[in-house]
Automatic annotation (TrEMBL), chain A:
The chain crosses the membrane at residues 243-268, 374-394, 400-419. Keywords: Membrane, Transmembrane, Transmembrane helix. The keyword Ion transport does not apply. This is Membrane-flanked domain protein. InterPro entries: UCP026631 (IPR014529), YdbS-like_PH (IPR005182). It holds the Pfam family bPH_2. The keyword Membrane applies. Residues 52-130, 270-353, 418-497 form the YdbS-like PH domain. It comes from Natrinema altunense (strain JCM 12890 / CGMCC 1.3731 / AJ2). Residues 135-174 are annotated as: Disordered.
Automatic annotation (TrEMBL), chain B:
This is YdbS-like PH domain-containing protein. It comes from Natrinema altunense (strain JCM 12890 / CGMCC 1.3731 / AJ2). Keywords: Membrane, Transmembrane, Transmembrane helix. Residues 61-140 form the YdbS-like PH domain. It holds the Pfam family bPH_2. The lineage of its organism: Archaea, Methanobacteriati, Methanobacteriota, Stenosarchaea group, Halobacteria. The keyword Nucleus does not apply. InterPro entries: YdbS-like_PH. The chain crosses the membrane at residues 12-30, 36-58.
Amino acid sequence: MLALQRGVTGFSMPFFFVMVAASVVDFVAIGWVFWLAPIGFVAGAGYGIAHYYRFGYAVTADTVDVSSGVFSRRSREIPYRRIQNVDVSQGLLQRVLGVAIVSIETAGGGDTEATLHFVSEEEAERIRSEIRRLTAATAESTAEPDADRPGSADESASPSESTRRDRPGDGATPTQLFELEAEELLLYALSSFRWGAAIFPLVLVLFLTGSDSGSGLVPAFVFDAARPFGGPATLEGVSIGPVLVLIAVSLVQWSVFTYVSSAIYTVANYYGFRLGRAGDDFVYERGLIQRYSGSIPADKVQSVTIAENPLQRLLGYAGLWVETAGYGPDSGDGSQATVPMARRDRVHRFAENLTGAEPSGFQSPPPLARRRYFVRYALLAAVVVVAAFGLAQVSALERWYLAAVVFVAVPPAAHLRYANLGYVVGADHLVIRTGFWKRRTTVIPYYRIQTVATRRSVFQRRLELASLTVDTASSRTFVWGTPTIYDIDLETAREIHGTSRERLQSALRDRARTDDIGLSVDFT
Amino acid sequence: MESLHPRIRLLWIARGALAAVVLAVALVVLDQWQLTVPTVAIGVVVALALVLVVAYAVRLYQVWRFELQDDALYLERGVVTFVETAVPFVRVQHVDTQFGPIERVLGLSSVVVYTAGSRNADVRIPGLTPDRARSLQETLRELAVESEAEDAV
């Protein structure tokens, strides 16, 4: 096993170095690669071996210790109680060689706190279950004696008062909660759009045109594809019409490629998704080529979100995500799918069982908010028209006033934004729904609130409206944004502000008594 | 509700003025290298920026308030977007006192309260006398320890 680790470490480092060296040197002189690559290989292999010998980890009674570093040494101790989630991932080569990468996440910090590169599969599994067992043990030793409740059979019957401190045989095989079926996976792949995938076609084009660089800045196939629709043969001295056609055709091509690569990416990532529970942890497994598996302690879950886009709503499907303060293995933020895609009623039931909150009976912001969105989108449309007018002044573009068509979209857009907003002030949870294109219904236990802020912009003050931002501990994410109830009456906002604070305090007191985490592990 | 030390206005004005100077330099550079910008225009723009900066600083000072309530640190601030934030003491991770070079010259200090949140993860109370900053830090620390709950994250 050790030899295997060393071999892989020794090998993968130089591969990386060779690749970097090759791509950098390529621009200077291709011949350099032949003598630089071996140097890179030797240096990389040397560094890899040194790194291997200088790397050590230990799973002790109350911490995970990792010491590493060839030139500058670093040793790190991570207390179990602070561990958010443990993820194991395996690439294709690593699967062939039977090794895996273990990442240990804690809250805070810019990235993964400890990464064990290349341990054997059994070792990875052992580390994970060991950490889970010891985390549970430390939690139990600090918890009150009555926290241990027996039996797991009757639990699902009472989801409302649910915390489950039972750990039948630590490290036991996980109970399966959810498995993503083939049709659900396919639906998920076809109905979700990852904008990140938009760079795949670009990279592909760059890669392909790198070899035959004769067509200049724009590759030849772009022209070929656009020509049947009236596109230009070259970029030189053409009028604006054909260029617009060229742009439109290229955009269509790009979107199609993006859609296809996004679907492929989703299938590759979520193939064989399975979620189970082991003790108080969720454990998941997924991936076609690269395998991911990991555990999420239920008492580290900060909020639960139901995500659905219009297409998925139309088909009656939705996804369920949980957010922790750590970082996900590939998403770069703390949100992880517990149920990537399932029938909507099922997801709602899961969310209900998981949090004990019912995501229904939504209250809407006052209709004044809709007027605000109407004005906002109308202004946006006006900007578009002005831009078109400006373009008409400096170029041959005629009939700029046709851009006024965008005004037609303003009322429905304003209405849709308004109609999708909603909130529930529950007994134990705050439920916030927002967004049309990516509608998210987030359930936040009061217990998880970090700060509460009432925000009023100049315009909101004029209308006596306010937005309430409820912050939970989570990694800084720009994609998901902080849960916010938008544009409610100032009075209401102040009221919810106060309620949230009060219920945070009472939830804290309750929790100190009963050790209730407010989340049920057995949610399916 | 406690308000900030009046001298904080000077700090904000100084900062704004610095930005205005940068703007002026950028305009001059533009004038030299790209297109001609009339000197009068530069003067007007910079003067306007300075007036705005002063007005902003004065207004911000007027609205900035904070208070130690029984369960949370409560702040009100903001000129364009008015924000009322509550930071429960249980959620305070640690408290810093800080002062930059301009603050030092003006004899001011800030208290920064960190939480584990994602958006308002650090809340800064500027414009305190060093003594007040230290005592506030002390109080917050005590309150945070007092209300310590079971592991938040």
